[in-house]
Every structure is written in structure tokens, then in C-alpha cells.
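Researcher: Batch entry, complex prediction.
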Amino acid sequence: MALYLLRRIMQSGFVLVAMSLLVFIGVYAVGDPIEILISPDADQEEKERAIRALGLDLPLWQQYLVFVSRALQGDLGRSFVFNEPAIQLILQRMPATLELAFGSMIIAIIIGLPLGLYAGLRPDTWGSKTIMAGSILGFSLPTFWVGLMLIMIFAVQLGWLPSTGRGDTAVLFGIPWSFLTIDGLSHILMPAFNLALFKISLVIRLTRAGVRETMLMDYVKFARAKGLSPTRVTFVHVFKNILIPVVTVLGLELGGTIAFSVVTETVFAWPGMGKLIIDSINVLDRPVIVAYLLMIVVMFIVINLIVDIVYTLLDPRVRLESKGT
Amino acid sequence: MSAPTLEVRGLSTHFFTRAGVVKAVENVSFTVGRGKVMGLVGESGSGKTVTGFSVIGLVDPPGRIVSGEILFKGRNLVGMPEQELRDLRGNRIAMIFQDPMMTLNPVLRVDTQMIETVQAHQKVDRETARQRARDTLGMVGIPSPDERLKSYPHQFSGGMRQRVAIAIALLHQPDLIVADEPTTALDVTIQGQILAEVQKLAATTGTSLIWITHDLSVVAGLADDIAVMYAGRIVEQGPVEQVLDAPFHPYTHGLIGSVPSRNKRGVPLRQIPGMTPSLLSLPPGCAFRARCERPIDACGDMPELTERAPGRFARCCNPHLEAVA
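Model: C-alpha cells for the complex:
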């Protein structure tokens, strides 16, 4: 296990290096931030000074080396726009995005698993057919449209839920969180549900497919032949076997939601990271873009590692070993 | 005289598929006395497995028992409420499946799978159930049962897994065990061991057995009575030595003839030409007619199962009676 973790960390290091190179070159190719950052009235001398101050006068490979040597000391550069450390900018907005992403994940599990289970166990009933048809809608309706509709119905027409912002926050570990206050929860509900809709459909379909496949296995029939109650057969024998694909996909989805919930954050004016990255790309704020993408890479690596560890808990046949068996 | 352990009368189990009604089991009757072993023999698709599942009440839709009685110690299992059936299953009637790799749930430890079986039928605490599980594992010849209880199924070999499955079947010292080809997936030496083990256990505990197999050599050494099935019907029935020494039905004749044995070196093996007919479109008359080596005109009508010698029944218009005559 320790050896396995060590190898994984080394591999992750390589991924990070490769990713930083790609991102750096990519951002460089996108455009010259000087044109955007400096007023057109500035004279040549002022311009040169600004370029030198930002370190943009060096050739690309030197810029990269400077970036790497600073990154190794924990400094991912300062934002051109806000003149603040990029990492700090991102971390400030991270809690908002994290609670939104986890909120949507919890909604997806709470709604998706039971519906999928039902649809898998009773595939021919009207209820199941309705669930499956609904899941197609969940897959195909565009997020922004659903978000607007939710606001239309629950904020404008019914006036039950607030439409924008995080609402009241309470501080935990020195960080403000919305989910700790009633007002904050009422703010988070709609955007989280909006993000969850796609995931609910995904969980329903995965669960249903898993249940239908598992129900045909001999060990389920054997469990019934032992005289176990249907409840025990379903929730112990079947359920544990279907969790692996669900955990895999939800892990990846979680990463995707944290990194790219831009649309929902925009629709509900949720002050998260998605808004930040879009703004930064608009003004070519290179340090923020690079820092953001690297953070996302780290996050995916961590999530995948957690998913792998969860596998070993769910399926005793899976062993984390450095060599394949 | 007390009632036999199991008496099946005129059992018909049909599957109502989209392509039509599959008469998997048609008018099957047999009796298994206390402590007796009944061999149910036939090719794939002859209905022997469905017969077994009918007895334990686990015929899944679209299948259904359409007529007949299954009297277990005088109680009719057909039409019995599911709750009462479940009380019998794994308790008084147990089942062992064909593929030991598939019958144990891969994600649950052996102790979990055994203890739940004990607790499904008896209100005992975990520790008592665990001790029973351990003792039963020891009884079926699993070394160091205490440690093995903590293992997962994939840590056992195929033969050991089948022993675990047998141990689970024996936990409540059932009156009847339905064994569906339990040795088919094992290699020959293990097969021998398991057969000897089962024979010993049946003799000491007075458990009756229905041993479903396509392997006549297994039945020869194990069973008291034998029923040969073809296309959903019993075609020959009687005490095992008599049937194997002098089969009446040409199909039984063919089955025995196709067992390879040493004294026929150099002589091409006999085989039954053709294949089992589709149960969806059985021709009228004797189902074996097209493959029979001695058909006569009367075969155009389905022959009845008639007593051709004391205790010996055959469903044939032109049986091999010469041998006994």
C-alpha cells in the first residue's frame, strides 16, 4: 500500500510537469496580455517597463523556468489584474464552488440511487418507464436553460427561493460557508439541484443497469435459495456489487463539477471559481489561468486516488499493488 | 408408513416468452424417500434444472408452474405463500448450484454469507451462528475453518468454494438438497472427493438428495433411483442399477453408449445423432423420434410413461425389452 501510494505520487508529479508545460505554452499562444492590460495611450517607455515588470521580456523557456522555480517555493505567480497571488485568488473562491459541487453530488445520490434501484428491480412498471424517460430529459436539457427555468418558477413565480448569491454564511475553520445557515441553504438549493440534474440521470442509469445485471447472477439466486428476505438480498447482495461503477463515475463527475461549473455559477451569480477562470481568460491573466488549471490537475489526481482506495473497500478482489497480478 | 420426503406429481413448468410458450417441464412425477438419492439426468435444455428450481420455488418470470403438485413431507409447495416458502428455503430444502465460482457473492466474506443463512431461519446471536458456520465448514473438510471464515470467496479454489456452498446448504441440516450439477465445473479428483463427502453426509444425516447431472457415471455411484429427462419429460425412471444395466428407452441406451470407457479402445464412440429439439416447436408424438434408431409408426403419438417391469417406467412405443425378457 505504501509503495503503491509512493508510485502514485511520483506518477502524479510527472503529470503535473507535463500539464504545466502544456498550459504554459498554450496560454502563451493564446495572445499577448500587454495589449489588454496597458492603456493604449501609454508611451513606448511605459510599455517596456510594464513588460519587464511582468517578466514578459524573457524568452518563453526562461519564463517557464522562472515559473517552475517559483512554483517549487509555493508561489504560482501574481495576478496581472488584481496584483494578488493567483493561488490566493483561487482559494478565496474555492469554498463556494466546493459546497456547490458537493451539494449537487449529495442530491444526485439521494435522488438517483433509490430511483435507479427501483427502475432496476421493477423494470416493467409504469413508474420505471417514467423514471427512465425522465432521465433522458435530465441528460439532454441544457444546464443554463434548466437554471433559468428554475429561477423563473421558484424565484420569480412562486418566490420560494432566492435566485442569486450565496446568502448568509457562517465561519468554519476560518472559511465562510453557506450550507451552515438556513438562508445560505436556501440559496444553494437551486444551483445545486441544477448541477445535480445531469448526475441524477447518470446515477439512475448506472444503478439500473447494475441492478439488472446483478439480479441475474447465480449468487443472487443462491442468496434467495438460502431463504434470505428480499430486502437483505437487495441491499446487501445486490447493492454492494453495483456501487463500483457508480463510485467511479461520480468521482470523475465531482472533479468535473468543481472545475467547470461555470454555466451554473454564472446563471445563479454564484461567486465561485468558474466565474474567476472565465474572467481571467478574458483578460489573459496568465498566472491565474496557469495556477487554476494546475490546481484542477492536482484535484483530479487526488479524486482518482480516493476512488481507487474506495474500490478496495467495496471489492475485496481489488488490491492496490505496484505490480499487476 | 410416513410420507416420503418429496413427492412430485404431474409437475409442468412453462415459460411464457415473446416467441411462444416454452414447456420446459411437462408432466413430471417422481418420489424421493427419506435419505434417498434421486438422479435427474438429461442433456442441456432437457428441463432438469427447471425441475430443480420448481421444487425450491425459484422459477423466475416469465416462467411459472402451471400445474401439478410438489408435496414436501406432505405439504404442497405449489401455491404456497412466498413467506412460508422462504421459511423452507435454505432451511428444510437447500440447493447447491453448478458453478462454485458464481454462487458465492464476491464482495461478502464467507462468514457473512454463512451467518446470514443461519440467522435467516433461527433467532440466534452472531457468535452462536458463527460457531455453527465454523463447525459446518469443518464437517465438509475445509482445513482451519476459523481462518477461512474471514476469507473472501476469491481466496478459495473452485473445489473449496463448492465445499463452502455445500456447507451453507447443510447449515440447517435440511431434509432435502437439490444439487444442480454441483461437480460439473470441478476437476475429476475434486469431483470424487465431493461425491464421497456428500454421500457420507446424506447417509449420516438422513438428508434426501436430488442430484441433477448430465454425467451418468456420477449418478451410477451415487443415486438410488434415476429419472432420465428428454425435452421436458421423463422418458425413463427406475432403480439406478437396473436402468443402467438394461435401459428400456433408446435415449437412455444412447446416453449410456456415449460414455467413453476403456474396453472400447479403437472402436469409434457411439453417439446420438442430431440434437435436442427446440422446446418452442416440439413435433407431435415422441420428441425423441427424429433421433431414435428404432422408430416405428406408433411413435407419431406421444407415448405414456408406462410400467414395463416392476418399479421401472419408460415413455416409449418400442422399448428395449429384450434384455429383461
